[in-house]
Amino acid sequence: SQQGEEDPQALSIQEGENATMNCSYKTSINNLQWYRQNSGRGLVHLILIRSNEREKHSGRLRVTLDTSKKSSSLLITASRAADTASYFCATEETSGSRLTFGEGTQLTVNP
Amino acid sequence: DAGVTQSPTHLIKTRGQQVTLRCSPKSGHDTVSWYQQALGQGPQFIFQYYEEEERQRGNFPDRFSGHQFPNYSSELNVNALLLGDSALYLCASSLETSGGEQFFGPGTRLTVL
């Protein structure tokens, strides 16, 4: 079963705008990860945030984690058409264990 | 440095048949996990192999089995295929001591007719 939910299910924006996706989960976690998937192909790892971290940056990506609310957000700044993809959050409950994925957010960036 | 590779890319089978999917992990990785992704859904964990043994298993029937070889490569076998087994099968590799990040292969698209 899925760990939680992602919100929104679909998001359509214009190039240059920021995109924010949210993820909620149900259990305590060791870390939370965000992945990108283009057109049903393999998953590309974007960023990992550990349970003792609150915010992390990588290039145009900013991830926050609120363990008290069991939620995370992914912000993509200055979006590009190439950012069009499905974005998934995944939680790892204990180190080295399975990843539990959400349902994903389909992001469309219009040129 | 080769990433995770999977074969075949696509596969078409009929109900009742058996299928074997293969995965070679990223160089230096010792742990392989398999996921099933139905269309429009997030990936679901099938099982994980470490030191040639199944270490964790998701909520999948015994028709799904696997193997890990001494070189860390892995196979996923599915017997008595059902229409509902049609999905993208993803392999992910990681290093036991690295703490978290899994590297995914491009997947095998299985269609059961």
Give an overview of the whole structure.
The complex is a heterodimer of chains A (111) and B (113). Chain A is built from no helices and 11 strands. Chain A has strands at 5-7, 10-14, 19-24, 31-37, 43-50, 55-58, 61-66, 71-76, 85-92, 99-101, 105-110. In chain A, strands 2, 4, 5, 9, 10 and 11 form a 6-stranded mixed sheet that branches. Chain A has a 5-stranded antiparallel sheet with strand order 1-3-8-7-6, with no helix packed on it. Chain A is globular. Chain B has no helices and 11 strands. Chain B has strands spanning 5-7, 10-13, 19-24, 31-37, 44-50, 53-57, 64-68, 74-78, 87-94, 103-104, 108-112. In chain B, the strands form 2 sheets. In chain B, strands 2, 4, 5, 6, 9, 10 and 11 form a 7-stranded mixed sheet that branches. The radius of gyration of chain B is 13 Å and the shape is globular. In chain B, 39% of the residues are buried. The model of chain B has no long low-confidence stretch (mean pLDDT 94). Chains A and B meet through strand 4, strand 5, strand 9 and strand 10 of A and strand 4, strand 5, strand 9 and strand 10 of B.
